[in-house]
TrEMBL record:
Species this chain originates from: Candidatus Nitrobium versatile
GO molecular function (one): polysaccharide transmembrane transporter activity
Protein name: SLBB domain-containing protein
Location (main, coarse): membrane
Pfam families: Poly_export (PF02563), SLBB (PF10531), SLBB_2 (PF22461)
Family: Belongs to the BexD/CtrA/VexA family.
Length: 733
């Protein structure tokens, strides 16, 4: 026996129960807690009232308080899965996955949380059968020939003292008998009076909760407490304790067997007796358990009492819900505590068929499945108000009916519709298309208002390629920038006219025209190019790595792999712009030219202000921007940027033009023109006049700097194409 428990027992024996006020919700002195039980017993000294009587106390509804809790709160219920719950969850999941076996033991969550949701017990009216005992406060009011009030407290000897009458023994009397006794005794000394007797503060009683309780121990509760209220106050049964046979023992005899299922499932509280001092609430071990999961109203693990058949378990679970499928039931069962079996059945005519309504065994898990979803729908799309999926009755629902369900035809609907119907045959699915005249179908024409079948697809056509609005955007140096609606076939020159034409600051060569369809094409092209380059890089790298033998070679291959990865990361980070090269001119010259493109939804045009600079980037000493001069060549701009860097590839310099195109600079008198796919001779004195305002001179790096780049002879062309597509210039390192 631990020291704490010894101290607790000494307190109980030194101070008799009827002389101590237990007030655990407002404990002014340290509590004594048993090491074997979470129950705490708080002791409040007697008040210095006259006669040494215990001062009136309010009877708390809960007498268990842990040191970590706030006064007035029960210990919070800790949700833990029992071994049975864990087993059923795991074992049940090994069967059909259509039904979850994550179910809990029924009823135990009733005692969750804190504080109790019931009203305090001391506020319950006192009935005529209430038994008077030490600690009860009796209030007497007299009027008539005599007037007065008396507040009496039953002392530990079970007596009260009345003027003239003297000492009366009242312990053991019911409240009704007490009133009769007081009136009889006072009538011996007074006449012509009336009397009212009521009870004030009530005594507390001590009860014991033992067995498989959630929190076993000794509890001090209100004298009005019943078995149910005490169970709520003390945490109820643990998951190893029964819910079906909770016993109250008094003076060595069991006076009641209480089934909590009667209370939970039927609301039956007839056996909920009032507790007396020193009563013992005994909770035996839990009985046989069976789980039911799936499509019942209350899936859970239920405790079986006696022989329980399948139908009774379903009824305990609230019955089948609206989604339950009677055509299948699965039962998992433990056989001889050695192995687990599964057998199937159904719920059809179970009430009449005794074989189907079999008895359950300990550990059974019953699974109720969902009804099978059979789709009887048809789809309607196109020029209707609310296209979608609609239920149809084959051979009954017709074209006109479904169109009405879809909100009717839109004003731009065509007279033509098409039904796609797929039939199942032994040779495979066969698709049939049926043309329908909608106008005639809506008039009820039998040859067009045909009956639909399940899975039919009805498409109502639309005055072709109907769109309410198409919009494009024009920004920058136009007189009226903004978003414009366009009609089908409208061209760029028309848009510029509607926008008021160019302003005086417009830089036509730098016009930036983007299109969503071009962006998508560029994205695919860029991904393909990067994919090919990635395969080539790592394919050749793997071959070289397998041939490496020395540490120096392996280190070199490691550096090479890192360089390749960095280059590919830069390539993958580039995002297509969707830029389409257009060369704007005076509207009179633009009309009818190859650059007077037909506009599409989402097109965007930006015309910048006049640019008078040239950019130089790449393998130069300092990237920079310089004022454009017609008298300077690209070489002179490179000199202005500090000249070539150490690894500059001077034979592959290219220029990003302001209109978005790219061009390699001339290297001799005869050069290849990629735009016209031909060789051209450059006139004397003109070969270096390829630079215009707004252009960017790009000086790439030599591939010889990195050994593995020598294998890719078109690396400069790849980077130049990337610059045009994504509008970026990449440095290799």
């Amino acid at each position: 026996m631990t020291m704490k428990r010894l101290i607790a027992l000494l307190i109980l024996f030194v101070f008799p129960v009827n002389s101590i006020a237990f007030e655990l919700q407002t404990i002014p002195v340290p509590t004594v807690q048993s090491s074997a039980s979470p129950t705490t017993i708080g002791v409040q000294p007697p008040s210095p009232a006259a006669g040494g009587q215990t001062a009136p106390q309010q009877s708390p509804s809960s007498q268990t308080v842990s040191p970590q809790e706030q006064p007035g709160l029960k210990k919070p219920y800790e949700e833990k899965m029992s071994e049975v719950e864990q087993f059923i969850k795991i074992a049940g999941s090994k069967g059909s996955s259509a039904v979850s076996s994550d179910i809990k033991q029924f009823g135990y969550d009733l005692f969750d949380g804190s504080p109790s949701s019931f009203a305090p017990v001391e506020r319950v009216p006192v009935g005529p059968d209430y038994v008077i005992g030490p600690g009860d406060e009796v209030k007497i009011t007299l009027w008539g020939n005599i007037d007065g009030t008396m507040n009496l407290t039953v002392d530990r000897d079970g007596t009260v003292s009345l003027p003239k009458v003297g000492v009366l023994g009242v312990t053991g009397l019911t409240f009704k008998e007490l009133k009769e006794t007081l009136h009889k005794e006072l009538s011996k000394y007074y006449v012509g009076f009336q009397m009212n007797v009521s009870l004030g503060s009530l005594k507390t009683i001590r009860v014991y909760v033992v067995g498989n309780a959630n929190r076993p121990g000794a509890y001090t509760v209100s004298s009005l407490s019943t078995l149910v209220t005490a169970l709520f106050d003390t945490g109820g049964p643990s998951k190893t304790g029964t819910m079906r046979d909770i016993q109250v023992k008094r003076n060595g005899k069991t006076i009641v067997h209480f089934d909590l299922y009667d209370f939970l499932l039927k609301g039956d509280k007839t056996k909920d007796i009032r507790l007396m001092p020193e009563d013992v609430i005994f909770i035996p071990p839990v009985g046989h358990l069976a789980g039911i999961a799936g499509n019942v109203k209350n899936p859970a693990i239920y405790e079986l009492k006696g022989e329980i058949k399948l139908l009774e378990l379903i009824q305990m679970a609230g019955g089948l819900n609206s989604l339950a499928f009677k055509g299948r039931i699965q039962v998992q069962r433990n056989e001889s505590n050695q192995f687990r079996t599964i057998f199937e059945g159904d719920l059809i005519d179970m009430e009449e068929n005794a074989e189907k309504n079999f008895s359950l065994k300990d550990g059974d898990l019953v699974k109720i499945f969902s009804i099978i979803e059979t789709k009887n729908t048809a789809m309607i799309h196109g020029a209707v108000a609310t296209p979608g999926e609609f239920g149809v009755t084959p051979g009954v629902t017709r074209v006109k009916d479904v169109i009405s369900l879809a909100g009717g035809l839109l004003y731009y609907a065509s007279d033509k519709a098409e039904i796609t119907r797929v039939r199942v045959t032994q040779a495979g699915p066969q698709t049939e298309r049926i043309l329908v005249d909608i106008a005639k179908a809506m008039e009820g024409d039998a040859s067009n208002n045909i009956a639909l079948e399940v899975n039919d697809y009805l498409f109502v056509r639309s005055v072709p390629e109907w769109r309410l609005y198409r919009t494009v955007t024009v920004q920058g140096e136009v007189r009226y920038p903004g978003t414009y609606t366009i009609k089908k076939g409208e061209r760029l020159s028309s848009l510029l006219e509607r926008a008021g034409g160019y302003t005086g600051s417009a830089y036509l060569r730098g016009a930036f025209f983007t299109r969503e369809s071009v962006k998508e094409l560029q994205r695919k092209s860029l991904e393909e190019m990067i994919g090919r380059l990635e395969i080539e890089m790592y394919g050749s790298g793997a071959t070289a790595a397998s041939a490496a033998v020395s540490k120096e070679e392996l280190d070199a291959k490691k550096i090479e792999a890192e360089q390749k990865a960095r280059l590919l990361e830069k390539l993958k980070a580039a995002k297509p712009t969707g830029r389409l090269t257009v060369r704007l001119a005076h509207l009179r010259l633009l009309k009818g030219s190859e650059y007077d493109v037909e506009l599409e939804e989402g097109d965007s045009l930006y015309i910048p202000t006049t640019s008078n600079v040239v950019n130089v980037v790449g393998s130069v000493m300092t990237n920079g921007t310089f004022i454009y001069s017609d008298a300077l060549s690209y070489k002179e701009y490179i000199e202005m940027a500090g000249g070539y860097a150490r690894y500059a590839d001077t034979s592959n310099i290219y220029i990003l033009k302001a209109d978005g195109s790219a061009r390699k600079v001339s290297s001799g008198w005869v050069n290849w023109n990629p735009l016209k796919s031909r060789w051209e001779m450059t006139a004397f004195g003109e070969k270096e006049k390829e630079l215009e305002a707004g252009d960017t001179v790009v000086v790439p790096q030599k591939t010889e700097k990195v050994a593995w780049l020598r294998e890719f002879k078109d690396i400069t062309q790849i980077l130049m194409q990337l610059a045009v597509t994504a509008g970026v210039v990449l440095q290799l390192y």
